[in-house]
Design a protein that fits this description.
Layout: E1 4-8, H1 13-25, E2 28-33, E3 44-47, H2 56-59, E4 68-71, H3 86-107, E5 112-116, H4 142-161, E6 164-169, E7 172-174, H5 180-190, E8 203-204, E9 206-208, H6 209-221, E10 229-231, E11 238-239, H7 240-251, H8 262-272, H9 275-282, H10 290-296, H11 304-318
Length: 319
């Protein structure tokens, strides 16, 4: 049975993977984008260049009815924030903008709204146990706060309107086309730069972009997903040295790991003003992703080795 799924942020890193996965399933995909890019063959683009989805209900094409919406578009985490009131900017896009999309989707016949949030809605680190969906959230920055507020506002709207809301919280997403810290790590490994990470024992959850896309596709239709929040990971948490060694193997480069104590790295981070970046490398952030397995019977279709192989192959072909 062919369905029509609207995907916001469809030309983004995750959006392209989700759109391809939906098309493979046989769905019609309408991608809401700010710039025409034709990133995914077979996807219909809807050009909507408005701030924070203002006026989306009025601009929604009359003939476009849909079964579900995957909402990926967001104001994303900015490393060096320059705004005097960043929380207001995050709220305008991530909370108010998301509610506008949900209301427009409901009017267009959508029964299901999949909101792709972030583990930052809960926090930046795990203590002795992996973070579960039932753990009390304590977001640490304006981005995380706005994502948590959006989750809560959307569930409230869903209860009022009858729209079935599903929240998906990924950790760090990697795969072909990845940017930011993961790309910087691959650059350093490929160049043979010694990395002071050999003594870091903390483990971090990751998710390959095609695994995340597969979970999101399931959440667009599975009746058991309605009203649920899911943490989605590859199902295996790596330490940073393990990640570096696996990537080095796939990049055909040496893994030059220097065992510098974590305490020394934290001091260096404070002195250089890079504490947040250092903590993302050496702090523990593990997610409990058993809920989606138990509720939906969903398991990641790709291993972490396969995901890293695909990512490294893309890197070697493009850098």
């Amino acid at each position: 049975m062919s369905r029509t799924i609207v995907v916001t942020g469809a030309n983004g890193f995750v959006g392209q993977a989700v759109s391809r996965a939906l098309l493979r399933r046989g769905d019609r995909v309408v991608g809401v984008v700010r710039r025409a890019q034709s990133g995914v063959e077979g996807m219909q683009e809807w050009l909507l260049d408005t701030e924070d989805f203002a006026g989306i209900e009025q601009r929604w094409p009359v003939a476009l009815t849909c079964d579900a919406v995957v909402h990926l578009a967001a104001r994303v985490h900015v490393m060096h924030e320059t705004l005097t009131d960043p929380l207001a900017a995050y709220r305008a896009t991530n909370v108010e903008g998301s509610l506008r999309v949900a209301a427009a989707a409901r009017r267009a016949g959508a029964r299901r709204f999949v909101f792709v949030s972030s583990i930052k809605a809960v926090g930046e680190a795990s203590a002795r146990q992996p973070i579960a969906e039932t753990d009390p959230p304590a977001p640490a920055d304006p981005y995380g706060i706005s994502k948590l507020e959006a989750e809560r506002a959307l569930f409230d709207y869903g209860r009022e309107s009858g729209l079935e809301v599903v929240v998906v919280r990924p950790p760090l997403v990697y795969g072909p086309g990845v940017r930011a810290n993961f790309l910087q790590l691959m650059n350093a490994i490929a160049k043979g730069i010694p990395l002071p990470l050999g003594a870091v024992a903390a483990r971090r959850s990751l998710v390959f972009v095609d695994n995340l896309a597969d979970a999101i596709v399931h959440c667009t239709t599975d009746p058991r997903a309605a009203g649920e929040t899911f943490h989605v990971t590859d199902g295996r948490d790596l330490s940073v040295p393990e990640l570096v060694r696996l990537l080095a193997t796939q990049l055909h480069a040496p893994a030059r790991l220097v065992p510098v104590p974590a305490g020394v790295l934290r001091v260096a981070g404070r002195l250089s003003g890079r504490s947040a970046q250092i903590e993302r490398l050496i702090g523990e952030l593990r997610l409990d992703s058993s809920h989606i397995r138990e509720r939906l019977g969903w398991y990641p279709p790709h291993t972490i080795e396969h995901g890293l192989l695909e990512t490294a192959a893309w890197y070697r072909a493009t850098h």
